[in-house]
Amino acid sequence: MAHTSSEDDKLTSELIRLLGSRTQTREDTGLGRSTGRSSCPNPFLRSTNESGGGQDSSNFSRRTTSEAERIAPLSSSEVECDWDRPIGRGTFGAVYKGVCRGLPIVAKKLTLNHDSVEEFEHEVATMVKLRHPHVVLFMGACTEPTTRLIVMEYMPRGSVGDMLDRSLKDSSKYPAPSFELRMRMAEHTARGMNWLHCSDPPILHLDLKLHNLLMDKDKNVKVADFGLSRVKTSMVMEGRQGTPTYMAPEMITHNEFDEKADVYSFGIIVWELAFWKCAWEELPTKQSVFEAVRAGKRPDVPADTGETLSLLLDLTWDPNPEIRPTFSSILSTQVLDRIVLEHYISFERNKLGWELWFDYFLEVREVPLNDFMEAFFATIQVDFPKEDTFMYRSLKELLITDSNSNDADVVTLQTYARMLESFGPLQTGTGFFETIRKVFLIGGFHGQIETRAAERLLGRRPGSYLIRYSTTPGSFAISVVTQKETLKHYRIVHQAGQPFTLLLASQSYNFPSLEALFNAQADPLYLRTPLHSKYDNVLEDSLQQEGYDSVC
Known about the structure:
Blueprint: H1 9-20, H2 66-70, E1 79-81, E2 88-90, E3 93-100, E4 103-110, H3 114-127, E5 138-144, E6 147-153, H4 160-169, H5 179-197, E7 213-215, E8 221-223, H6 228-232, H7 249-252, H8 260-275, H9 286-294, H10 307-316, H11 327-332, H12 335-344, H13 351-361, E9 366-368, H14 369-379, H15 390-399, E10 410-412, H16 413-423, H17 431-442, H18 451-458, E11 464-469, E12 476-481, E13 487-493, E14 500-503, E15 508-511, H19 514-521, E16 529-530, H20 534-546
Parallel strand pairs: 11-16
Antiparallel strand pairs: 1-3, 2-3, 3-4, 4-6, 5-6, 7-8, 9-10, 11-12, 12-13, 13-14, 14-15
C-alpha cells in the first residue's frame, strides 16, 4: 500500500480546526510575533518535503547485501564481553554488554543457522546506512563463519520500558519523569522513525515499543532493534509481526500492512508515555489483546485528556491505516509540543496566557527572562516597565525560582503555568498585577516551598502564618502555629477564574478571592502574624517608591 502526501491532511486539518476556534489573528489586536517565526497564527500550516511513506515498501526485502560485504569488519577478538552473562535474549540469539576498541558497546550474537545468517546480512545492510541522532548507532559487525556479531553503541540508561517497569513497581524510589520529558521521548521516537520511513525504500521497524527505545546518559531516546524481526518475513508484507500490545489491527487480522503499522505502535507508545502506564495491562493474554483490537477497542483515554492528545491518539491508532498520519506529519505539525502546552495551561481558563506561549515559545520549555518579559507585556498591551517597578519585580520573583535549571534567569513553562493558574486568568491591561498585589498585601506569601520548610520557618510562635503554593497548580496552603503551639496546614483549592475553597475537617467554604478568605477566616484560623518573605520586600519597595495608588 503506497500513501500519498494528501493522506496527512487529516492531522493537519484537524489541528487547524481545533486551533481556529481558539486563536485570533494578531491583526485584530495590533500585535505580531516578535520572534522570527511565521506571522501565520499557527505553525500547523507548515509543510515538509519528507513524505515518510510515498514508496512501495514491498521492495524492502530486495536490498542487496553488498553493503554488508563492503563494511570494514570487526574481528571477534576485538569484541570483549562476558559471554556467560547476556543482558538479553531473543529468537536471534543473545545481547551482551562489552568493550570494543576501548569504547563501551552492546553486541548481538546470533545463534547460527541458515535463516539467522541471512537475517544478519540483511540487518547489517540496513543498519550500515543509518546515521541519525535518534537511531542507535551501528558501529560494526563481525562476519566470521563461526561468529556473527552486530556491534552497537552502549546506551547507559537502558530502555524506556525498563524505566516504566521500575516506576510502576516502586514509584517512591523511581518517580515518573516529568510530562514534558515523556513527550520529548515521544518526539525523539518520531524523529528516529521518520528517518527510517523516509529511506528509499522505507525501513519498517514492526516491533516499535518502549523496550526498544533506549536512552543515553542525558535521557535522549534512540530507536533500536529494528532489523531482525522485519527481515525474517520481509518478502511477505502481511501477517503478525512484533509484540501483541503494540500490533496494528491489519497485522492481527493477517492483512497487508506497510509503514503505517509502525504509526499505530507509536500511538500506543504515546498513550503509555502520557499516562505512564502499560497498555492493555488489564488483559491477561495476547489473544485477549487481539480480540479487543479486532473489536475496535483501544486503551482507555481519561475524559479530562487534552483535545490535541486525544486527537493524536485517535488518528495514530485508527483502524484504517490511510487515516494514520506519517511521522513526517507528526513532526511538521508540532503536535507533541502542543500536547505539552495543553497539559500545563488550560485554554478554557487561561486563553490569553495559553496564546502567549503558543505564539512565542511553542517549541521550548524554558526561555530567557528578558525574552519572556517582552512577549508578556506585548501580549497584555502594556508598555515595558522599568526593572524597579512592581510589575517587573513581582513577575520576576514569581517566575524565577531556586529550582530553575540554569544559572541565568530563565522562565519555565511549569512556573509560568502555575502563576497563571494561581493569579489568572491573564487579560490585557494591568489587572493581573492588581490581583498579585492584593495577595502580597495579605502578607506572608512565600510562593513555592515545601511543607517541612514552612514548618522550620514558622517555629513555635502562636499566630505566625505563611501562605504558599499547594502541590496542585493554582491551589494554595496556609501554614499556621495554633494557640497550642502546634502546626496546622489548611488547603485552599483554586483554579484560574474560580472561587477559593477553604477545606476544613468537617466542611468547606467558598470565597471570591484570597483576600476575602483571609478577612473572613483570620480569627477562626488564628492568623495573627505573617512571616516576612521576599515578596513582601517587593511590595514594600514599590510602595515607598511609587505610592500605594501607583504600585502597578
